[in-house]
Amino acid sequence: MVEEEFSHSKLLKIVLEKLELLNKDPFNYAREKLGKDKYGNPMFSIRVTGDIRII
Contact, 44 vs 34, CB < 8 A? Predict the structure, then answer.
Protein backbone atom coordinates (compact mmCIF):
# COMPACT_ATOMS: atom_id res chain seq x y z
CA MET A 1 0.00 0.00 0.00
CA VAL A 2 0.98 3.60 -0.49
CA GLU A 3 0.67 4.33 3.22
CA GLU A 4 3.23 1.66 4.08
CA GLU A 5 5.68 2.84 1.43
CA PHE A 6 5.55 6.61 2.11
CA SER A 7 5.10 8.72 5.20
CA HIS A 8 2.33 11.32 5.09
CA SER A 9 4.79 14.21 4.76
CA LYS A 10 6.68 12.51 1.93
CA LEU A 11 3.43 11.72 0.11
CA LEU A 12 2.27 15.32 0.49
CA LYS A 13 5.61 16.58 -0.85
CA ILE A 14 5.29 14.33 -3.94
CA VAL A 15 1.73 15.54 -4.60
CA LEU A 16 2.74 19.20 -4.24
CA GLU A 17 5.72 18.66 -6.53
CA LYS A 18 3.46 17.23 -9.24
CA LEU A 19 0.91 20.02 -8.83
CA GLU A 20 3.65 22.66 -9.22
CA LEU A 21 4.92 20.94 -12.37
CA LEU A 22 1.39 20.68 -13.76
CA ASN A 23 0.74 24.35 -13.01
CA LYS A 24 4.05 25.49 -14.51
CA ASP A 25 3.98 23.43 -17.74
CA PRO A 26 1.08 21.00 -18.35
CA PHE A 27 2.68 19.64 -21.53
CA ASN A 28 5.90 18.76 -19.71
CA TYR A 29 3.90 16.96 -17.02
CA ALA A 30 2.03 14.97 -19.66
CA ARG A 31 5.32 13.95 -21.31
CA GLU A 32 6.72 12.84 -17.96
CA LYS A 33 3.71 10.59 -17.37
CA LEU A 34 3.89 8.63 -20.64
CA GLY A 35 5.79 5.75 -19.05
CA LYS A 36 6.55 2.62 -21.04
CA ASP A 37 4.79 0.79 -23.86
CA LYS A 38 3.60 -2.82 -23.62
CA TYR A 39 7.10 -4.06 -24.55
CA GLY A 40 8.80 -2.06 -21.78
CA ASN A 41 10.29 0.60 -24.07
CA PRO A 42 10.10 4.18 -22.80
CA MET A 43 7.55 6.27 -24.67
CA PHE A 44 8.17 9.89 -25.57
CA SER A 45 6.40 12.79 -27.18
CA ILE A 46 7.40 15.89 -29.06
CA ARG A 47 5.95 19.36 -28.86
CA VAL A 48 4.84 20.66 -32.25
CA THR A 49 5.61 24.35 -32.57
CA GLY A 50 4.66 24.92 -36.18
CA ASP A 51 8.29 25.53 -37.15
CA ILE A 52 9.22 22.16 -38.62
CA ARG A 53 12.13 22.01 -41.04
CA ILE A 54 13.50 19.02 -42.89
CA ILE A 55 17.26 19.14 -43.24
Answer: yes
